[in-house]
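Before a colleague's protein record goes any further, I have to sign it off. Thanks in advance; the entry in question is below:
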Amino acid sequence: MEKENMVILPSIKGKVAVVTGAGSGIGRATAILLAKNGASLFLMSRGVENLQETQEICEGYGVKCLYEATDVTNPKSIKESFVKCLSIFGRVDILCNVAGGSTGRKSTLDMTGDDFDEVYKLNLKNVFLCSNEVLLGMKERNYGRIVNVSSLIGRAAGDNTNIAYSSLKAGIDQFSRYLAREVGEFNIRVNSVSPGYIEASQRITELWAKTQNMGEVFERLSIKRPGKAMEVANAIVFLASDEGSYITGEILDVNGGAIMA
């Protein structure tokens, strides 16, 4: 991953960034790219072993990088992680809400309220809770950057997920727009990055290998291949940088031309 093309953005150097979902995939790529650009990092994810691996890569760029095993579906766990982060770094300049996930393919009639709640906590509620932890400090310092990760599936119905996941990813985009309007006067910018078919983990690669029509799906894209985690991270970090200083409330598609609108 480190050898992939990575954007260089001078304004990131010296900033303090929090990345959720940093143990793998897009979250790990985002943390690595922020480290390469000189940001201090606080990483959150459930798996300690994966966080340690991300930390080691990031520290290779000479930055301070700490982590906390965090269950983003648990408000208490989120609160404790941000308390630790602020006790060490004193502030958060950049928040990248990458953590999320689906409970898999399931029809609406087969879903229960508990199923929906699980997906809600994993995808949208954690974005609200994590953002709330940093907004006051950002407002007081008149500086902040929040980038949320949604999904192509929030705008296009798909066969391999469920109505909760699709609806809540759409909710992340609207959350970003609303919050951007609310906090813009305090020099806080809020944006979403909406990935398409991204080969972000071995699990996804194996899933695609079992899906017969994925070759046809990629052939329909303008860029006829799946994306890479670092290609999404480049977009996230650009929006988190001062090089993107006049962009807020934007939904940036990184989908190889799957949707053009």
About this structure: The mean pLDDT is 92.
